[in-house]
Write a structure and sequence with these properties.
The complex is a heterodimer of chains A (301) and B (316). By secondary structure, chain A is an all-alpha fold. Chain A has eleven helices and no strands. Chain A has one domain: MetI-like fold (Orthogonal Bundle). Chain B is globular, with a radius of gyration of 24 Å. Classes of the chains: A mainly alpha (301), B mainly alpha (316). Chains A and B meet through α4, α5, α8, α9 and α10 of A and α1, α6, α7, α8 and α11 of B.
């Protein structure tokens, strides 16, 4: 008896493994046939490599002042030219990439985790829902940037505080996405069946509802990443973000605006990197949405 | 209908209440004391203490909140300690540039985006469609302040066609008014246009595949009439939603864009107020902006009924 059931279980498990393998292959195929995702991933990969390698390759320090060589045009020596303090712009943009991407990644992870917890519990407990959703309404009624500037004024200009400010501004968006898909799942018969069997809320929420909210969450996170980069750049541009002299794409643009009549390169190069990063993330997110959500796929056709 | 509007207006109260509480306590957490900021570094401690007393800053924070909040309920948003004028007046003085900018940007974006979206949907899968959608993708990926800087670089600095900073009100003549706003409005409108054109396209595609469109075509209704009378009107609902949702990003963008072009709008008002620790101005302005946002969303919801009678019937 026991032996027999063992055999079936192992049979089933090999069968399951096969199906899983096939599914994975199918997913890879679909992934590669989606132009947006591929282009987005390549862009992000290149950018990531740039952020990792360029600061090591660059022969100038991003902070070294050289007043004799102020505002030099791009040349073979200074690939992107020099800024109003004679610092090498290539090196500053490269170090800025680390800062901007670092802020983006941290914000994505934090909003992802906190937004998921808030969204799931709001969907599961309706009393909590009323409270949390009113708070998120209120947070969303603030324009992002004003909220972030106000928080920065409280916390002081520090990279870590930029992450906190942007995260706070973006949690409601993620929480709402998770909540709306969790609400749909919650009404399914199998959740009712689980409850009838006496499953605890912890198990239902984390084991049965969470997996069904993952794909919209991932898509949303890629957009949050993009917005985080824009917000960081905006904050630093306003002088409320990454403090000088540390480079970030935003505060290079700020320096660049002062000398916009003399040095186009200080606006164009950091600007191009911001566009490149945001474009990559948007392409990736759009493609991923089509890949994961069959409904929107239909409308694209 | 009236009951619905009342219900919606009432549901704004808790949201605004949370905004009020949140903004008040957040602002009061900002280190630095308004009295010493106003008086400058040379003030003696006694002078600072005197002004603090006058401004009510030495009261416990909950009393300060209570004081401010009773004023707000009675329509008094407080007085700017720095500019020495009522917050409402400061707000009204600064709303002109921001509103002109936002309306112009929204107008430009709608004018560009809706035709592009409709054409892309009609010619779906063709090169025109791809070009439009690549442009839209690019438009979505340029933060408005960056586009502002780039436009400034090209049209202001190199071509010298338009001024790079400043503002003149409408009373200075239409061209003088417009020339300062064109670049900011384009840079702010571009991202809107990108979002709206994508939405228009996908909404039109959904509608164009419906049976009643096929019926209309089969009956021999002209192509143009099918697109504009049968399909377009029905695809407006999601477009309207996007217009409401993007208003927030319009304001967000306006704050930074105003800074780029030195426009004396709401963005400058708040940012200056934050650096000056002008509590009343920050609180009042953010509250008013939040209220505007909520009212605008209500108006959009009401417009659904205008565009689509089915929504009107369901709501009863």
């Amino acid at each position: 008896m026991e032996v027999k059931s063992n055999i079936t279980i192992s049979d089933i498990s090999t069968l399951k493994k096969d199906i899983k393998k096939e599914r994975r292959q199918l997913l890879v195929k679909r992934f590669l046939s989606n132009k947006s995702v591929v282009m987005g991933s390549v862009t992000l990969l290149l950018l990531g490599l740039f952020a990792l390698i360029a600061p090591l390759v660059s022969q100038f320090s991003p902070l070294e002042l050289d007043p004799a060589n102020r505002l030099l045009k791009p040349s073979s020596d200074h690939l992107f030219g020099t800024d109003n303090f004679g610092r090498d712009l290539f090196s500053r943009v490269a170090h800025g990439a680390q800062v901007s991407l670092g802020v983006g990644i941290s914000v994505s992870i934090l909003t992802g985790i906190i937004g998921t917890v808030v969204g799931l519990y709001a969907a599961y407990y309706s009393i909590l829902d009323h409270i949390l959703m009113r708070i998120s309404d209120a947070l969303m009624a603030f324009p992002d940037i004003l909220l972030a500037v106000a928080i920065m004024a409280v916390l002081g200009p520090q990279p870590m505080n930029v992450v906190i400010a942007v995260t706070l501004a973006k949690i409601p968006v993620v929480a709402r996405i998770v909540r709306s898909s969790a609400l749909v799942v919650k009404e399914q018969t199998y959740i009712e069946a689980l409850k009838a069997q006496g499953a605890g809320s912890l198990r239902i929420i984390w084991k049965h509802i969470l997996p069904n909210t993952v794909s919209p969450l991932i898509v949303q996170i890629s957009y949050v990443f993009a917005i985080a980069i824009i917000l960081e750049a905006s904050l630093s541009f306003l002088g409320a973000g990454i403090p000088a002299p540390d480079p970030s794409w935003g505060n290079i643009l700020y320096d660049g605006k002062i000398v916009i009549y003399n040095a186009w390169w200080m606006t164009v190069f950091p600007g191009a990197f911001i566009i490149f990063a945001v474009l990559g993330l948007n392409l990736f997110g759009d493609g991923l949405r089509d890949l994961l959500d069959p409904h929107s796929n239909k409308s694209i056709k | 209908m009236k009951a619905y509007i009342m219900k919606r207006l009432l549901s704004m109260i808790p949201v605004l209440l949370i905004v009020a509480v949140f903004v008040f306590f957040l602002i009061h957490l900002i280190p630095g004391d308004p009295a010493s900021v106003i008086l400058g570094p040379d003030a003696t401690p006694a002078e600072v203490a005197h002004l603090q007393n006058e401004l009510g800053l030495n009261l416990p924070i909950y009393e300060q909140f209570f004081h401010w909040f009773t004023g707000v309920i009675q329509g008094d948003l407080g007085t700017s300690v720095y500019m020495n004028m009522p917050v409402l007046k400061a707000f009204i003085e600064h709303i002109g540039p921001t509103l002109s900018l936002a309306i112009l940007a929204q107008g430009i974006s709608i004018l560009i985006a809706i035709p592009i979206g409709v054409i892309a949907a009609r010619r779906r899968g063709t090169n025109i469609d791809s070009v439009f959608m690549i442009l839209a993708m690019l438009g979505m990926s340029i933060p408005s302040f960056l586009l502002a800087l780039l436009l400034m670089l090209v049209f202001g600095v190199h071509l010298n066609w338009l001024p790079v900073a400043g503002y003149q009100s409408l009373s200075a003549g239409l061209w003088n008014f417009a020339k300062y706003l064109i670049l900011p409005a384009i840079s702010l409108g571009a991202i809107q246009a990108a979002v709206i054109s994508r939405m228009t396209r996908s909404s039109m595609i959904d509608i164009l595949s419906m049976n009643y469109i096929k019926t209309a075509k089969a009956k021999g209704v002209k192509q143009r009439a099918v697109i504009y009378k049968h399909a377009f009107r029905n695809s407006l609902i999601p477009i309207l939603t996007i217009l409401g949702e993007t208003f927030g990003s319009l304001i967000t963008g306006a704050v930074v864009t105003e800074t780029v072009f030195n426009l004396p709008g709401i963005g400058q008002l708040v940012i200056n107020a934050i650096t000056r620790r002008d509590y009343a101005v920050i609180q009042g302005t953010i509250l008013l902006v939040a209220a505007t946002y909520l009212v605008l969303n209500l108006i959009i919801d009401l417009m659904y009924g205008v565009v689509d009678p089915r929504v009107r019937l369901n709501r009863k």
